[in-house]
Amino acid sequence: MRITRTISAAALLAGIALAPALAWAQQAEPYGRAYGPHMMDWGGGWYGMIFGPLLMILVLAIVIAIAVLLVRWLGGAGHDVHQPHHGQAGRTALDILKERFARGEIDKEEFEDRRRTLDE
Asked: What pLDDT does residue 49 have?
């Protein structure tokens, strides 16, 4: 008796769960064998199809922007872009010439010659 109740309850639940699917399957096809006015026969025009690629490009741009911002954030603040050493403000040509002489890039004769040229 207990098994029959269990089977009856399971059959009732299956019937309730499958009823909407069975009712939906009995509907008549409004367009015959076609897919509808906006699929295969292009009854609605092409203008609606432009939004798919535009949305795809927009989503791709957002994903790339998030990736770039995440990489910059994870990279830290130590990678800021600064002016190179030789581009500091307030340095004169004579200061640069003195530095080159101190580093040994030019000899004394060349230093004196260029210093005289700058003084003129």
From this structure: 72
- 37 neighbors 44 (Cβ within 8 angstroms): yes
The region of weakest confidence among 16-25, 37-46, 74-83, 98-107 is: 37-46
The three-state secondary structure class of 63 is helix
3 state SS of 43: coil
- pLDDT at res. 48: 64
Greatest pairwise CA separation for the chain in angstroms: 120
Q: Residue 48: helix, strand or coil by DSSP?
A: helix
pLDDT the model gives residue 65: 96
Is the C-alpha dihedral spanning 26, 28, 33, 36 positive or negative? negative
How many residues are recorded in the chain?
Answer: 120
